[in-house]
């Protein structure tokens, strides 16, 4: 058995502004705890790092605090909040709603917020 604690991640990936992703990797399993601060928007905070027009990562996880809007490239939108378990396919933008940080645990972060 292997274990690590998200409070002491293997890696911290800072966003351009407004938060960071703490990443823990065990063998072929990667888990991220994203802290998306008020004002965070993928197209402003991660797009310069990723270099793609929209987020091309498939996210699977759970929101534990705050709220975030996800807008797919086809224009459909959803708002997620605490307790919501999500599957977000590639091709989206997203932004924090309100004045509380949105915290998400995400298993789809092996390549997230990396150049």
UniProtKB/TrEMBL annotation:
Gene3D superfamilies, per database record: Jelly Rolls
Highest taxon above the source species: Bacteria
Protein name (Swiss-Prot/TrEMBL): Cupin
Source organism: Nocardioides ginsengisegetis
